[in-house]
Protein backbone atom coordinates (compact mmCIF):
# COMPACT_ATOMS: atom_id res chain seq x y z
CA UNK A 1 0.00 0.00 0.00
CA UNK A 2 1.05 3.57 -0.48
CA UNK A 3 0.19 6.94 1.03
CA UNK A 4 -3.02 8.36 -0.35
CA UNK A 5 -4.96 11.54 0.07
CA UNK A 6 -7.62 10.66 2.64
CA UNK A 7 -9.73 12.71 5.02
CA UNK A 8 -8.23 11.71 8.35
CA UNK A 9 -8.48 13.86 11.45
CA UNK A 10 -5.85 12.71 13.93
CA UNK A 11 -4.92 14.20 17.30
CA UNK A 12 -1.20 14.15 16.42
CA UNK A 13 0.90 13.87 13.26
CA UNK A 14 -0.25 10.90 11.22
CA UNK A 15 0.88 9.11 8.07
CA UNK A 16 -2.55 8.28 6.56
CA UNK A 17 -3.25 5.23 4.45
CA UNK A 18 -6.49 4.03 2.91
CA UNK A 19 -7.78 0.83 4.44
CA UNK A 20 -10.48 -1.44 3.06
CA UNK A 21 -13.31 0.49 4.72
CA UNK A 22 -11.59 3.32 6.58
CA UNK A 23 -8.35 5.29 6.61
CA UNK A 24 -5.79 4.49 9.29
CA UNK A 25 -2.51 5.90 10.63
CA UNK A 26 0.82 4.17 10.06
CA UNK A 27 3.35 4.01 12.89
CA UNK A 28 7.02 3.90 11.95
CA UNK A 29 10.35 4.64 13.60
CA UNK A 30 10.02 8.43 13.26
CA UNK A 31 6.27 9.13 13.43
CA UNK A 32 3.83 7.37 15.73
CA UNK A 33 0.75 9.37 16.63
CA UNK A 34 -0.23 9.14 20.27
CA UNK A 35 -2.66 10.82 22.63
CA UNK A 36 -2.33 13.53 25.18
CA UNK A 37 -2.85 12.08 28.66
CA UNK A 38 -6.58 11.70 29.30
CA UNK A 39 -7.75 13.81 32.22
CA UNK A 40 -10.76 13.23 34.43
CA UNK A 41 -13.97 14.59 32.94
CA UNK A 42 -15.64 17.51 34.73
CA UNK A 43 -18.41 16.51 37.14
CA UNK A 44 -21.64 15.70 35.34
CA UNK A 45 -19.92 14.83 32.06
CA UNK A 46 -18.20 11.93 30.32
CA UNK A 47 -15.48 12.01 27.68
CA UNK A 48 -16.20 10.33 24.36
CA UNK A 49 -13.43 9.28 21.97
CA UNK A 50 -14.73 8.42 18.52
CA UNK A 51 -13.11 6.85 15.48
CA UNK A 52 -15.36 6.52 12.48
CA UNK A 53 -15.51 5.87 8.74
CA UNK A 54 -15.71 9.62 8.04
CA UNK A 55 -12.00 9.81 8.92
CA UNK A 56 -12.18 11.11 12.48
CA UNK A 57 -9.64 9.28 14.63
CA UNK A 58 -9.95 9.40 18.43
CA UNK A 59 -11.93 12.65 18.19
CA UNK A 60 -12.66 13.82 21.72
CA UNK A 61 -15.96 15.34 22.79
CA UNK A 62 -17.72 15.86 26.10
CA UNK A 63 -21.22 14.58 26.83
CA UNK A 64 -23.47 15.91 29.58
CA UNK A 65 -24.99 13.45 32.04
CA UNK A 66 -28.58 14.04 33.12
CA UNK A 67 -30.52 12.15 35.74
CA UNK A 68 -33.62 10.30 34.55
CA UNK A 69 -35.98 12.87 36.05
CA UNK A 70 -34.27 15.62 33.99
CA UNK A 71 -34.69 13.85 30.64
CA UNK A 72 -37.67 15.01 28.56
CA UNK A 73 -40.21 12.41 27.57
CA UNK A 74 -39.66 13.62 24.00
CA UNK A 75 -36.00 12.74 23.66
CA UNK A 76 -34.28 13.31 20.34
CA UNK A 77 -32.31 10.73 18.36
CA UNK A 78 -29.04 11.88 19.97
CA UNK A 79 -30.14 10.85 23.48
CA UNK A 80 -29.05 7.54 25.00
CA UNK A 81 -30.65 6.41 28.23
CA UNK A 82 -28.26 4.32 30.29
CA UNK A 83 -29.37 2.92 33.64
CA UNK A 84 -26.64 2.23 36.19
CA UNK A 85 -27.40 0.41 39.44
CA UNK A 86 -24.60 1.38 41.82
CA UNK A 87 -25.74 -1.23 44.35
CA UNK A 88 -24.82 -4.18 42.09
CA UNK A 89 -21.12 -5.04 41.82
CA UNK A 90 -19.89 -7.90 39.67
CA UNK A 91 -16.15 -7.78 40.18
CA UNK A 92 -13.28 -5.60 41.30
CA UNK A 93 -10.99 -4.35 38.55
CA UNK A 94 -7.37 -4.16 39.65
CA UNK A 95 -5.88 -3.13 36.31
CA UNK A 96 -5.57 -3.63 32.59
CA UNK A 97 -2.69 -5.12 30.63
CA UNK A 98 -1.38 -7.59 28.13
CA UNK A 99 0.80 -10.68 27.94
CA UNK A 100 4.58 -10.69 27.54
CA UNK A 101 4.90 -13.76 25.33
CA UNK A 102 7.98 -14.90 23.49
CA UNK A 103 6.14 -14.26 20.19
CA UNK A 104 5.52 -10.64 21.21
CA UNK A 105 9.18 -10.31 22.21
CA UNK A 106 10.40 -11.78 18.93
CA UNK A 107 8.09 -9.44 16.98
CA UNK A 108 9.24 -6.35 18.91
CA UNK A 109 12.87 -7.40 18.58
CA UNK A 110 12.51 -7.60 14.78
CA UNK A 111 11.59 -3.88 14.59
CA UNK A 112 13.90 -0.87 14.65
CA UNK A 113 14.59 0.03 18.30
CA UNK A 114 12.70 3.35 18.17
CA UNK A 115 9.61 1.70 16.67
CA UNK A 116 9.60 -0.99 19.36
CA UNK A 117 9.93 1.74 22.00
CA UNK A 118 6.99 3.60 20.43
CA UNK A 119 4.85 0.46 20.58
CA UNK A 120 5.65 -0.14 24.26
CA UNK A 121 4.83 3.53 24.99
CA UNK A 122 1.53 3.17 23.10
CA UNK A 123 0.53 0.50 25.61
CA UNK A 124 2.08 1.60 28.91
CA UNK A 125 2.59 5.39 28.90
CA UNK A 126 0.22 8.18 29.87
CA UNK A 127 0.20 9.12 26.16
CA UNK A 128 -0.94 5.60 25.30
CA UNK A 129 -3.70 3.39 26.65
CA UNK A 130 -2.03 3.25 30.09
CA UNK A 131 -1.81 -0.49 30.71
CA UNK A 132 -0.63 -1.02 34.29
CA UNK A 133 -0.24 -4.79 34.38
CA UNK A 134 1.52 -7.50 32.41
CA UNK A 135 1.14 -11.29 32.35
CA UNK A 136 4.08 -13.60 31.79
CA UNK A 137 3.02 -17.10 30.68
CA UNK A 138 4.96 -19.91 32.31
CA UNK A 139 5.75 -22.95 30.17
CA UNK A 140 4.69 -21.65 26.76
CA UNK A 141 2.04 -19.76 24.87
CA UNK A 142 0.18 -19.93 21.58
CA UNK A 143 2.02 -18.68 18.49
CA UNK A 144 5.41 -19.44 20.03
CA UNK A 145 8.17 -19.60 17.43
UniProtKB/TrEMBL annotation:
Pfam families: Glyco_hydro_30. InterPro entries: GH (IPR017853), Glyco_hydro_30 (IPR001139), Glyco_hydro_30_TIM-barrel (IPR033453). It catalyses: a beta-D-glucosyl-(1<->1')-N-acylsphing-4-enine + H2O = an N-acylsphing-4-enine + D-glucose. GO terms for biological process: glucosylceramide catabolic process. Its EC number is 3.2.1.45. Residues 93-144 form the Glycosyl hydrolase family 30 TIM-barrel domain. PANTHER family: GLUCOSYLCERAMIDASE, LYSOSOMAL ACID GLUCOSYLCERAMIDASE. This is Glucosylceramidase. It comes from Oppiella nova.
